[in-house]
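PROTEIN ENTRY
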Amino acid sequence: MQLLFRCDKQLLPLDAAENESVTSLTSRLEQKLGYASTCSPHLRLLHSGRQLSGEQYVRSAACGATTSADEAPDMILLHDDASCVFVSSGSEFHAVARVRGGGGDGGVYPLTHAELKWMTPSEMGVSGKAWTKQWSDKATEETIRIDRCTLCSASTQPLTPPIVVTELGYLCNKEALIEGLLSKTLPPHLSHVKSLKDVLDAKLTPNPHAKPDADFKAGADTAEMEVPFCCPVADVPFNGRHPFVYLKPSGYVVSERAYKQMGGSKCPISEVPCTADDVIILNGNEEQREQLAERCARRHAGAPTDARLASLTRGFAEKERVL
């Protein structure tokens, strides 16, 4: 029985023998089209929207399978004597070329565990250094840490002078803070700021190696980024990886390392004496922020601070010595 096979724009006739498999038909068709002989077939055969299995074989309709009189097939393509496809002489099949790759045949390499993890929606763009623009806004621990050191806490705009620091260690652009106070639109974490008396002018040292239009991508290594500010003494970047402090007497923002190198008693830049109550930890953790909030509450309540208590104690000791 003759069957027709359409491949691209060609329509090729092929005689099908009794008990011939679909694999054999495919091989004969490939030889007719001039495909090189390989262990795996180059074509897939489809009929009535169904792909034929290579295990299916040709059997005449009179060999057992029954059908309605309307179909009247000349032969049947059987698969394990279970599923079958009825075809007639002159039936048309479609021969479609197989797409190579993705099957471990050398076209691609197997994905690693990190790559598979990165491809999941919940982890995409944050595993390793993989990154796509589709996920550039995905917040991670590192990007949040970078934002706290480079963006205004009141407006989320890049920090630009004049810059102020709150009593809880938040950095803000002074103009944005004033606008928020006037319009009463400050975010909840700045609720402790009631007026400009609750903030202090801060002096940040620009990083000479920083790029103005740096794009901090999710999943990138922040240790290699050139952030806008740095410590002028210890030469460490203000990127959230190194703790920084604000010193009230001098107004400078320096790294905690540089402050401790001076014995924790004076500013490493201006050498102005500093006490423990003169130090504000920037972007600290919850415990450090609670300690700053307690100090702020004592100041507003009029209670003496630790530095004031130490000064009063020294004064009383001097008076007793004189007497």
Notes: Residues 144 and 233 are 25 Å apart (CA to CA). The chain is about 25% helix and 20% strand. The first strand starts at residue 2 and ends at 7. Residues 306-322 form the longest helix (17 residues).
